[in-house]
Amino acid sequence: MANHRKEVTTLKSLSKRQWTKIAAALVTMGLLAGAGVASRSFYESQHRLTSVTSYSATDANALEVSRGTDREELRGSNANTSYVTVKINGKSRVVLGNNFTDVKSVLDAGDITLEPNDSVTPALSDKVGESTTITIDRAGADLVTSDSAIAFNTVKKETAALPQGQQKVETEGKEGVMETTSIVTRAGSKVVSSNIFASFVKTAPTDKVILIGTGSTSSSDSSNAGGSASASIGTTVPAGEMQQWAHDYMLSNGYSEADFSATVYIISHESGWRVNAMNPSGAYGLPQALPGSKMSSMGADWATNYQTQLKWFWQYCAGRYGSVQGAYSYWLSHHNY
User: Fold this and answer.
1) What does the CA dihedral 331, 208, 242, 248 come to, rounded to 10 degrees?
2) 147: Cβ contacts below 8 Å, ≥ 6 apart
3) Quick check: 298 and 311 in contact, CB under 8 A?
4) Which UniProt keywords apply (predicted)?
5) How far apart are alpha carbons 243 and 258 in whole angstroms?
6) Cα–Cα distance for residue pair 108/298, rounded to 1 Å
7) Residues 122 and 317 sit within 8 Å (Cβ to Cβ)
8) Whole-prediction pTM value?
9) Residue 69 has what pLDDT?
10) What is the C-alpha separation between 180 and 17, in angstroms, rounded?
């Protein structure tokens, strides 16, 4: 009887040559897929798009930031804030504001004073947008960059690893460096004007840490004196008028010595205690508020009054991190706040 069943090819019935062809096809498909993934990865690495959010107060190039757990847009918490780039003799800075109408309004907000022979593009009366770059060419002016010292603080920390009353220097203090760029105009050898264009913390100061013994015996092992004390925030000795006022104000208003220590640490790293510290990103003042005009909620003198700036700083820390020490803990982990 004839067999009318259709012959079905099975894996078992495949010849060695057929198996070789199948294997070759699979290898080819794998190579093509791998090449596609590699090409995509290479393209992304060469054309990586990064979204600008906001700027770090301590980053001289203004490339990183965080003002909290979630990143915010460059314009900050106020969606109406605009940012415009101003370039003077090749040096750029971002000016932020809420009511920009023309070029002049941007220069006013950035506290940029024009000299009689300055060349400004676009014209002062021209309207501006966030894509606008205002260029100022100043004849006879030089951009002068200088460094100045930022004083370090002395922090005292108690430790049971040292006998009662004994002191030991755990860390020697080291001054920080404040970098300031000024636009200096000269007539011959005489300086006609000098205006600060940008000023930021180049290197933060290192606190001098002194351990204070609280141990009950003189046989305590001083070699391990830094153990538990290193984790403590310690008590900071106020240095200068601003810190003394901040210390007294905080203790009179329910804050602790630890809160003051946290304040000194953050402000020292953000602005070096310069009221007019001005990062190229537009961050301003002791707390490097971005934009600085945010501090107007605490007073119209926010640009020049350190007390107004500090009150805004404490309010911001409480609202964003729950406390000044909460902001301090975040700073230690992220090197910004």
Assistant:
1) 90
2) 177, 178, 179, 180, 202
3) yes
4) Signal
5) 14
6) 21
7) no
8) 0.64
9) 31
10) 77
Long-range contacts of 308-314 (CB under 8 A, 24+ apart): 309/275, 309/285, 310/242, 310/246, 310/249, 310/263, 310/267, 310/286, 312/287, 313/263, 313/266, 313/267, 313/286, 313/287, 313/289, 314/250, 314/255, 314/263
Each residue's pLDDT tens digit, 110-162:
878 887 778 899 999 999 987 899 999 887 788 889 999 999 999 999 999 99
Which of 149, 136, 274 shows the shortest CA–CA distance to 199? 274
Contact yes or no for 317/46 (Cβ under 8 A)? no
SS3 of residue 229 by DSSP:
helix
Residue 289: pLDDT over 50:
yes
| Residue that is written with structure tokens 């920009």 in the block | 100
By the 8 A CB rule, do 86 and 136 touch?
yes
What are the φ and ψ backbone dihedral angles of 267, each rounded to 5 degrees?
Answer: -65, -40
Residue 234: strand, helix, or coil: coil
Question: Does the pLDDT at position 29 exceed 80?
Answer: no
Rounded CA-CA distance 248/272 in Å is 20
Residue 284 pLDDT = 92
Residue 272 scores a pLDDT above 50: yes
User: Which residue, chain included where needed, has tokens 């000299």?
Assistant: 115
CB neighbours (10 Å) of residue 25?
10
What is the rounded distance in angstroms from the CA atom of residue 205 to the CA atom of residue 200?
A: 13
For residue 277, the cross-strand partners are: none
CA distance 155 to 159: 13
Mean pLDDT of the chain: 78
Residues 6+ apart with CB under 8 A from 52: 74
User: In which band, very low, low, confident or very high, does the pLDDT at 3 lie, cut at 50, 70 and 90?
Assistant: very low
Domain boundaries, the chain: 153-175+206-334
